[in-house]
């Protein structure tokens, strides 16, 4: 099963623009070939509409994407949706779709989440800058 949008539909990618680590990762995806098929939305800006079915608290706790058909995915499944969209990441998406891989990635993601604040602070000390202002990348 594929989760990628049709070519005329952008995937909304919700991220914490106040997080230096998250901002670096999102800038990396935005700079990839095919990144123009993704619409990066700073969920940390209260002026930004997140659309139906996604609350700001949820968007700040876990990584989310909204597919062109309106479905919202989070965690590892959200990353795989991005990988399916970016030509340079499609091999990773195919691997993630092998039996047992996506659940393993989700477990790894859940283990990462408590470390995110510490890793983000470290990234900031190393020079990573948060994406502030609510504008889309």
- Helix share, percent: 40-55%
Count up the domains. Answer: 1
Mean pLDDT: 89
Work out the helix count: 6
Q: What's the β-strand tally? A: 4
How do the strands line up in the largest sheet? 2-1-3-4
Poorly predicted parts: none
User: What profile does the largest beta sheet have?
Assistant: 4 strands, mixed
Q: Which shape, going by the Cα principal axes?
A: globular
Alpha-carbon distance between the two ends = 28 Å
Order of helices and strands: EHEHEEHHHH
Structural class: alpha+beta
* Strand content bin: 5-15%
Task: Report Rg.
Answer: 14 Å
Structure overview:
The chain has 137 residues and is an alpha+beta fold. It has one domain (11-125). 41% of the residues lie in helices and 12% in strands. The protein is built from six helices and four strands; from the N terminus they run βαβαββαααα. The longest helix is centred in the last third of the chain and has 12 residues, at 101-112. The chain is globular. The chain starts with 10 loop residues before the first strand and ends in a 12-residue tail after the last helix.
